[in-house]
Write a structure and sequence with these properties.
This protein starts with a strand and ends with a strand. By secondary structure, it is mainly beta. β1, α1 and β2 form a beta-alpha-beta unit. The model has no long low-confidence stretch (mean pLDDT 85). The chain is built from one helix and ten strands, in the order βαβββββββββ. The chain has one domain. It is globular, with a radius of gyration of 14 Å.
Length: 126
C-alpha cells in the first residue's frame, strides 16, 4: 500500500518530524511506502518505526521526492545523519515509479536532471 503526503514526515536537519499517531496508523494499515514532497531534496529511509530500522514489511519506507522543486532545501553539513536514513541528496532531478509483477514490485528511481544519470533506487517487494 502506498501513501502520499505533502509535508515531510521523516525529515531531519531542522529536527525530526515524528508523528506517532500517523506511524501507528501506517503500520496497522500495512503501508509499504510513504512518498513525501514539500522538502526540496531527496531522502529515503529503511523501513522505520519509532526511529529504528525494522525488517522489511514491518513498517513503511519513507521517500522524500522533492528534488524537482523551485529551489533546493540543503542539508546542514554539521547535522548527524540518523541511522534510519539510507540515502540523501540535495541536487535537482526527477523521479520515476516503476510498478511490476502485477503490483508485487515497486522501484523508485531518482535521476539527475543534468544528464539523466541514476542517483539512487529504492526497491520494494511484496
Amino acid at each position: 500500500m502506498y501513501f502520499g503526503g505533502h509535508g515531510g514526515y521523516h525529515v531531519y536537519g531542522g529536527g525530526v518530524a515524528n508523528f506517532p499517531e500517523l506511524e501507528t496508523l501506517f503500520i496497522q494499515s500495512g503501508v509499504d511506502v510513504c512518498l513525501w514532497g514539500h522538502v526540496h531534496n531527496l531522502l529515503s529511509t529503511c523501513p522505520v518505526s519509532n526511529g529504528t530500522c525494522v525488517a522489511p514489511g514491518k513498517a513503511p519506507v519513507h521517500v522524500v521526492i522533492g528534488n524537482g522543486g523551485q529551489s533546493l532545501t540543503k542539508y546542514f553539513s554539521n547535522t548527524t545523519v540518523p541511522g534510519w536514513v539510507d540515502y540523501k541528496l540535495d541536487n535537482f532531478g526527477w523521479n520515476e515509479l516503476v510498478i511490476s509483477k502485477f503490483g508485487k514490485e515497486l522501484a523508485i528511481n531518482m535521476y539527475s536532471d543534468k544528464d539523466d544519470s541514476l542517483y539512487h533506487t529504492v526497491q520494494l517487494t511484496k
